[in-house]
Amino acid sequence: MNTKVKSKKGITLIALVITIVILLILAMVSIRLVMNEGIIGRANNATNEYKTAEEKEKIELVKSELTMEKTQNPNVTEEKFQEIIDNVFGEGKATGEKSGDEYGITVKETGNSYIIKENGEIEGVGNLNNVKQDENPGQIEQVGTEYVINSIEDLVAFSYNVNNGTTYEGETVTLGRSLYFNGLFKSYVNENAKYVKDDIGYKAEESSETTIKELLTTGEGFIPIGTEDNPFKGSFDGKGYFIAEIYINSSKAAGLFGYNASPSIINTGIKGGQINSSRDIGGISAIANSNITIDNCYSDCILNGGSGTGYIGGIIGYVKESLIIKNCYNKGNLTESRALRSEGWLSWCIK
Fold first, then answer.
1. Are 116 and 159 part of one and the same domain?
2. E strands along 176-315, which residues?
3. Is residue 122 a contact partner of residue 103, using CB atoms and an 8 Å limit?
4. Domain count, the chain
5. Given 46, 208, 214, 325, which is the most exposed site by the fewest CB atoms within 10 A?
């Protein structure tokens, strides 16, 4: 009898221990869910949203003070602009710079950058820290399953890689911020870095006498991504960011992408600058293969065709067969005798 009682007690204790362990595991899972997705997660999101709203309110105040200053002195100096910023944000909390009639602000805590345009419009351009913190410019970093472009040097390397045969097929390439070739917020880690041009594109070369900025803003300018022999085959997601002040002067198919056979190009735009070519021209892509989706993209730059027989389109110059294009528009000027059509899908291909 005693043996049976001990056996039953042993089984009961084991069951109790197992139950306690299960309850502890469930409690830890519940706490983790609360921390990550529940009350604390929501609190963190609310704090970030509050900081962003407060930041934007201060940018509006800077704009108001800048506007008042302009009534007395239309040519507000960069030094005076910085003084206005310090009055609003506090000394050392944000930095300002000027290019023509545009004024830029970068908030140090968040790294977010804004432009107060000549017409008074405020435009957010993403996180400037992504450029300054790019420790390996010209080497596209992989973050999770994506390849992220954080600087002009990265964009140049991306073009070089594709034109050299790296198709990125099955991969996704994204923008980490808006990129400026010129003007405010120039997005070079080092605009004076020495680069040289070869048959494929531009690459770093210390012995060169030419800087990367000189190559990209004069002569042939930026070399489009993808060639007829080596088109881009990955997916490109701009994450809502854009490429600004692009300059291309080519005798070949010209656009941000020259040739692409990718599944999709989404969430990006070309803002400002000029693309010249006597061949096919498109703000986003000059030539696209069949069955490509272009979604939520736009072009707002000058597309300047020569006397050739190429196609010009605000979004796409020439499509070989079929294309899915939606939520796209073109605001840029098209030259020559080709009429500008910017409504809906009509912006993609014009002869």
1. no
2. 179-180, 195-197, 202-204, 235-237, 242-250, 257-260, 264-277, 281-282, 285-288, 292-305, 312-313
3. no
4. 2
5. 46
